[in-house]
Amino acid sequence: MQIVSLGPVVVSGPSGTGKSTLLNRLFAAHPNSFGFSISHTTRKPRPGEQDGVNYHFVDRETILQGIANGEFIESAEFSGNMYGTSIKAVRDVQKTGKICMLDIDMQGVKSVKKTDLNARFLFIAPPSLEALEQRLRGRGTETEESAQLRLAAATEELAYAAVPGHYDLVIVNDDLDEAYRKLETFIFKEE
Ligand SMILES: Nc1ncnc2c1ncn2[C@@H]1O[C@H](COP(=O)(O)OP(=O)(O)OP(=O)(O)O)[C@@H](O)[C@H]1O
């Protein structure tokens, strides 16, 4: 199988739709084809972590300046630390000849669209909002409040994905094997 394009592949879809399930299977089946961008973080390195390997360890000022300069695809704050993915980090993966997979939300999708990264956009949709709710609850990771927040965000994400041109392909993750085959075909073509 041959890679369709060396541009990054943006994978998006509501929380609980099955992105991690599908991507983990893809990485296991093709261990040498994918590379991961190195994120920036303001958190301190843990023992054994190396700057430029696990993360780019930077101060808050550096990330904020980078965001202001439009150098970041996405950024977020978790437990008092900032995290972000820079456009350069994605390009660095591309230089290695591997595909950078970006599992990002709708805001991230919109900011990648403003770059010249030549990305391809894939949306993983649930068969229905009811099925999504079942999966989210079935995973056992959500409180009632976080499940409600994720479902509300899902409605917005599905509306954005329904607009022609926003995504190159929408895969409905109903039967997992079938969804996986479509994902594989989106990334690789038969030689
Ligand atoms: N095709 C499928 N049919 C039924 N259940 C599925 C299917 N795909 C995934 N699941 C289950 O749905 C749950 C959510 O999947 P997963 O954690 O991969 O979602 P996600 O999109 O990565 O979510 P998040 O964005 O929150 O990380 C998991 O329990 C997973 O086993």
TrEMBL record:
GO cellular component, one term: cytosol
Family: Belongs to the guanylate kinase family.
One Pfam family matching this protein: Guanylate_kin
Keywords: ATP-binding, Kinase, Nucleotide-binding, Transferase
Domain Guanylate kinase-like: 6-188
CDD domains found in the cross-reference section: GMPK
InterPro entries reported for this sequence: GK/Ca_channel_bsu (IPR008145), Guanylate_kin-like_dom (IPR008144), Guanylate_kinase (IPR017665), Guanylate_kinase_CS (IPR020590), P-loop_NTPase (IPR027417)
TM regions (residue ranges): none
Name of this protein: Guanylate kinase
Known EC number: 2.7.4.8
Source organism per UniProt: Tieghemiomyces parasiticus
Any one GO molecular-function label of the UniProt entry: ATP binding
Top-level taxon of origin: Eukaryota
Entries under PANTHER family matching the protein: GUANYLATE KINASE, GUANYLATE KINASE-RELATED
Keyword Magnesium: no
Keyword Ion transport: no
NCBIfam families linked to this entry: guanyl_kin (TIGR03263)
